[in-house]
Amino acid sequence: MKKFTKLLSVICMLAVVISMFSACSKKNENPGSSSGSSSAGGNTAGSVKELYIYNSKGENAEQFTAMCKAYEQATGIKVRSFSIGSGQDHMETLRAEMQGAADAQPAIFTIQGLKELIEWKDSGAALDLSSVTDNTEFKALVDAIPEGLRLTTDGTNSYGIPYNVEGYGYIMDTQMLADLIDGDMQAAYNDLVFCSYEEFEAFVKAVDAYIKAPSAATVTLNGNTYTFKGQKTGLAENLTGVFAVAASEKWTYGDHMLNVAINAVFPNVAAANSATQEQLDQLKGPFSAFARALDLKTSYAAGDTAGAKRGNDFIVATNYGYDSTLQRFVDGKALFMKNGNWVAPQVSALDEEKASRLTFVPVKIPLTQEDIVAGDWTVEEFNSTIPVFVPMYYAINANKDTQTIAAAENFLIWLNTTEEGKRYVTEDFQFIPYNADPATTTLSNSLGQSILNFMKAGKTLSAPYNGAPASWGGDTVGLEIMEKYLTKETWTEEDYGSIADYAISKWKEMMNQ
Amino acid sequence: MTGYYKKWFYPLVLPALILFAMVILIPFLLGILYSFTGWRGTYFAGGGEWYESFVGLQNYVKAFKNPKFMSSLWYTLRYTVVAVIAINAAGLALGLMVTGISKGSGAYRTIFFMPNLLGGLALGYIWQIIFNSLYTDLLFGPNGIFPVDFFSYMLQDQTKALFALVIMMVWQTAGYMMIVYVTGLNNIPGDLYEAAQIDGTTLWQRFKNITLPMLMPSITICVFLTLANSFKLLDQNIALTNGDFNTRMLAMQILRTTKDTTPPDYGLAQAQAVIFFIMIAIITLTQVTVTKKQEVEL
């Protein structure tokens, strides 16, 4: 017995120690198998055995793997992709992958805009693509990125190839507009796009009055008069409010909606990133206008059975969270929902037909001509544009050996210039390609097509809020609005001013941290 | 058998020691080192090696100057005081209850212990619904059955949220403390009570002069556990309020520090973690020494 216990303990001990060491060595051999295996496929890019791509979008993981397989078949270069889970913290995972030997690190990784770039630029992991000169095809690809979409800190360097473009605004079901208004729906939609803020505000109030007591009232949009249907018909029957508002999700107004106002002073991310005190002071007007537009939006919000009111109930996540807001919109309880084309698959899962009828109306804010410092927009033009931006970029890991970097360049060329690569982007990922020619491209998805139409007309703003200090938008300004203002039934002129002042002073404070 | 253990002591302890060193000791020491550098998660700011990025006590100074850190420290202290008292009072009351009844005490013990099996995040989300739908909509809100301002919209005010968190944590952990107290209560010899009863003492006198002193070992353990856990509370804080309305506690503050700036300031987060560790160590060690002194030997 004694001997047996002794033997057992030795075995257990050995098992623990061995498993520990095997776990360690496994870690080393995992992604770095490129150095180990024999010449499986390095025919085009020298001795590259495997191209490791880190994809921080979980939603298209399956299609992404299929795309990598297709590349492997076309070129013989082994590609291994890793997509994070949907909703997982992509930065923490990426940081873990970027630790240790360069061999094990991804050759291509994804960066969500300038805020994240700073980290990889400082660490030396992000390759300045504008410095590549030996690969003419790649150089052409980098040079062709439109200026507004470039991932750059100073305007000349360039650290990423855009993943796709996305856009947002007030999403509207065209059929619902047709059910609300007598006459030509398309004309009414066009006039909604081009109308002034004041006309839009009058329209919102008219729709609200119509929901409460339908009558054949008239409303003027872009100078043209439209008459409401005398009675509620079709999709207009379920309406409880004008806007579906996710009041408990502070980033929805603290990031994207605020970004519209930031565009009045900063034309792009790099400009916002190097903001001066004077420029920040110029945001006072645009931010007050934003607050006024947010007041309108939250005053005419849809609830489950009747209109929603600002107050304590308004910011409770179980009442006005993201998913319940989306559901309310899909159920036809609201005419508008501020959101982006990325929401299309979710709407489609709930109501496929509705998803095929959606379109964008610009988020309008009551600016004056003096407020608009950047670009030469008139107020009317500014209010008929939607923000279109690159949510994510492919970056190349500068720590890798030259052959792997060359292979990474070739992969990005394949993805963005060949028919097969582009097909994956538009059809399998359902993306709007950043290099799409709006004149010739058509997309099967209605929101994507709507964005293409704005791009075609040159009516797009960018995403300068990405140049604001980290956690300034949703976590600071959005939080303040949620805690102090969305719980308050009426807003005053002073409230508009103090929201603007708070946003500006926090930006100034946080940019020096 | 003792000879066997004596002879094989070091080989038997070695695997555990190696594991402890690899997953706790070495990361802990590395963490202390990082707290003196400009560590950014994947690289050192201003240099290739750690010594080139050495910033001395700068991260510690920054931590104490950070209003978010100081407010979360203060909030954590306030929460800890309330939670330690509430959880232990509830745990002891439950313990007295289940030892006082003769029938079905096993079933009650199981029921009271069960909330402990739930994970912190799940619990937080469930209680978010309870505070909103039950507390606010049904019971205490402006349109509820008994309108009480304090219990409505508890997650939308810093002080109310503190008590909401306490209510939730009492529900979760009082059952666990109850088990410890029950063991302690069962170890008190019955003849002490008998003798006291013959002397004509009241119930309160017996509780104060027999139960409490005899229960001191259990109290030491329970206060230690609740103190340390309240200080380290993270999941429930994130799930219940996510730090909104200034309800960020220390653990969450450390976690979110890396998101507050770009590039992420892991050095600063690590300095806060070291301060956090020292504080917990000092507070719990003091508590254990103080309560140990109160324990009586028979």
Automatic annotation (TrEMBL), chain A:
UniProt cross-references to InterPro entries, sorted A to Z: Bact_solute-bd_prot1
Superkingdom as given in the UniProt entry:
Bacteria
Q: What keywords is this UniProt entry annotated with? A: Signal
Q: Check the record and name the Gene3D superfamilies matching this protein.
A: Periplasmic binding protein-like II
Q: Where is the signal peptide?
A: 1-23
Under PANTHER family, the record lists: ARABINOSE-BINDING PROTEIN-RELATED
Q: How is this protein named in the record?
A: Carbohydrate ABC transporter substrate-binding protein
**Organism encoding this protein:** Youxingia wuxianensis
UniProtKB/TrEMBL annotation, chain B:
- Which CDD domains does its entry note? TM_PBP2 (cd06261)
Q: What is this protein called?
A: Sugar ABC transporter permease
Superkingdom as given in the UniProt entry: Bacteria
Q: Where in the cell is the protein located?
A: Cell membrane
Q: Where are the transmembrane segments?
A: 12-36, 77-99, 111-130, 161-182, 210-231, 269-290
Q: What is its main location?
A: membrane
Any one cellular-component term (Gene Ontology): plasma membrane
InterPro entries referenced in this protein's UniProt entry, alphabetically: ABC_transporter_permease, MetI-like, MetI-like_sf
Keyword flag Metal-binding? no
Print the keywords alphabetically: Cell membrane, Membrane, Transmembrane, Transmembrane helix, Transport
Record keywords: Lipoprotein included?
no
Q: Which family does it belong to?
A: Belongs to the binding-protein-dependent transport system permease family.
One biological process term in Gene Ontology? transmembrane transport
Topology class, membrane = Multi-pass membrane protein
**All copies of domain ABC transmembrane type-1, residue ranges:** 73-287
Q: Please report a single Pfam family linked to this protein.
A: BPD_transp_1
Per the UniProt record, the lineage of the source organism begins with: Bacteria, Bacillati, Bacillota, Clostridia, Eubacteriales
